[in-house]
Design a protein that fits this description.
The protein is of the alpha+beta class. Helices cover about 55% and strands about 30% of the residues. The chain has three helices and two strands; from the N terminus they run H-H-E-E-H. Helix 2 runs antiparallel to helix 3. The longest helix has about 30 residues. The two termini are about 35 Å apart.
Amino acid sequence: MRYLLPLAPLALLAACATPQQQCLNNVSEPLRVNAFLIAQTQANLDRGFAVDQQQRVSRGFDMCRQRDRDGNVSTTLCPTTRVKTVNVPQAINMDVERGTLDQLLARQAILEKQASTATNQCRLLYPE
C-alpha cells in the first residue's frame, strides 16, 4: 500500500488531462517504450556491456537517543538496515545486441505509422 502512495499525485494529474491528451498519451506509449529500448540497446553497444542495477543490503548500528520513564535521555546503539542501489556491468553478446537493435529500429518505423494514424483519430474523436 505504501508503494502506491507516491503514485497518487500522478493519478490526480492524469485526471486533469483532457480526453484528447489522454488518448494521445495512450497511443504514443508503445512508441516511447520502443525509443527507450533503442537508446538502452545503443548505449550497451557503445559501452560494450550492459548495466544492471542491483540492490545491496547492509546492516549496522547507529547512535539513537531514547527517553526513559523518568524523562532522562540516553544514547544507545540501534540496529539499522541500509539499501544501496549499485550499477553492475553485465557481459553481452554484441551480435545478438546488434540484431535486437535492428529489430527495434524496424519496429520503430511501424509504430510511428500506427501512432500517426491513431493520433489523427484521437484529434477527430476529441476535438479541443
